[in-house]
C-alpha cells in the first residue's frame, strides 16, 4: 500500500490528484467510476481525498478504468518538468518532451532561413511528423522547397535530404520523431553553420 498523503507534493497526494483529474476529464461521476472498479462511492471519495489508504490492486483497477497505466499514474512528477530549453545558437531553442520511448516530441523555434548550401542538408533513417505552431516554416526536401504555414502539418521519411528554416520572421514547430529519426538527430544536431537547421 502507498502511505497516507502527508503533503500536497508527496507521490501519494499526486496520485490522488491524478485519479480525480482523470475521472473529471472523462466526465465520470464518483458513482460511475466506483461501479467500474467495484468500490462503494464513499470508498472512492475517501481515496481521492486522502482519507483512505491506496492499495495496489485498487490502483491497478482504477488505472484500467481510467484508460491509463499504473506506471503513468505513479510516475514522479519531477521527471515531467523541463525548465530550461536547449540553446541551439542562432537556430533558436528546443524543448525535449517526455513521451513514448519509441517516439520523441520536440518543440523548436527557428529564427533563420534554411541553409543555402545543399551540403548542409542531412539524411538519416527514420520518419518525422511536424506541425507549425506559429509563423511560416520552410522545409527543404530533396530538390523541393515546401512552405508550411501556421497550423499546417507535414510528414516525410528522413532518408530524404532535408533542412528547415523560417520565412519572414521566427516560427515555432512541433516535431515528432520515431526512434531512428531521433538517433539521427543526435548525430547531426549542431553540425550546421547557423543558417537554419536539419531538424
Provide an overview of this structure.
The chain contains 6 helices and 7 strands. The longest helix is centred in the N-terminal third of the chain and has 15 residues, at about 10-25. Helix 2 (about 30-35) packs across helix 3 (about 40-50). Strands 1, 2, 3, 4, 5, 6 and 7 form a 7-stranded antiparallel β-sheet that branches. The N and C termini lie far apart (about 45 Å). It has 2 domains: about 10-80, 434 Repressor (Amino-terminal Domain) (Orthogonal Bundle); about 85-190, Jelly Rolls (Sandwich), CATH 2.60.120. The chain has helices at about 10-25, 30-35, 40-50, 55-65, 70-75, 180-190, and strands at about 85, 95, 105-110, 125-140, 145-150, 155, 160-180. With about 200 residues, it is α+β, with helices and mostly antiparallel strands. Strand 4 and strand 5 (about 145-150) form a beta hairpin.
Helix/strand layout:
Blueprint: H1 11-25, H2 30-36, H3 41-49, H4 56-65, H5 70-74, E1 86-87, E2 93-97, E3 103-110, E4 127-141, E5 144-148, E6 153-157, E7 162-178, H6 179-188
Antiparallel strand pairs: 1-2, 2-3, 3-7, 4-5, 4-6, 4-7
Helix pairs in contact: 2-3
From the 3D coordinates, which CATH architecture of the largest domain would you assign?
A: Sandwich
Q: What's the domain count? A: 2
Ends apart, CA distance between termini: 45 Å
CATH superfamily of the largest domain: Jelly Rolls
Poorly predicted runs are 1-9, 190-196
* CATH class placement of the largest domain: Mainly Beta
Amino acid at each position: 500500500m502507498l502511505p497516507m498523503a502527508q503533503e500536497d507534493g508527496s507521490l501519494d497526494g499526486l496520485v490522488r490528484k491524478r485519479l480525480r483529474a482523470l475521472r473529471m476529464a472523462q466526465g465520470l461521476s464518483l458513482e460511475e467510476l466506483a461501479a467500474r472498479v467495484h468500490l462503494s462511492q464513499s470508498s472512492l471519495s475517501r481515496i481521492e481525498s486522502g482519507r483512505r489508504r491506496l492499495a495496489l490492486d485498487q490502483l491497478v483497477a482504477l488505472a484500467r478504468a481510467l484508460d491509463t497505466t499504473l506506471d503513468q499514474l505513479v510516475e514522479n512528477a519531477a521527471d515531467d518538468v523541463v525548465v530550461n530549453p536547449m540553446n541551439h545558437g542562432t537556430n533558436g531553442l528546443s524543448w525535449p518532451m517526455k513521451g513514448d520511448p519509441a517516439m520523441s516530441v520536440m518543440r523548436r523555434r527557428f529564427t533563420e532561413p534554411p541553409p543555402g548550401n545543399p551540403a548542409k542538408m542531412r539524411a538519416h533513417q527514420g520518419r518525422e511528423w511536424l506541425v507549425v505552431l506559429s509563423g511560416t516554416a520552410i522545409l527543404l526536401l530533396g530538390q523541393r522547397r515546401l512552405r508550411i504555414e501556421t497550423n499546417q502539418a507535414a510528414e516525410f521519411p528522413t532518408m530524404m535530404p532535408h533542412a528547415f528554416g523560417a520565412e519572414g520572421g521566427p516560427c515555432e514547430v512541433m516535431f515528432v520523431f520515431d526512434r531512428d529519426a531521433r538517433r539521427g538527430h543526435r548525430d547531426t544536431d549542431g553540425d550546421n553553420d547557423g543558417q537554419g537547421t536539419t531538424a
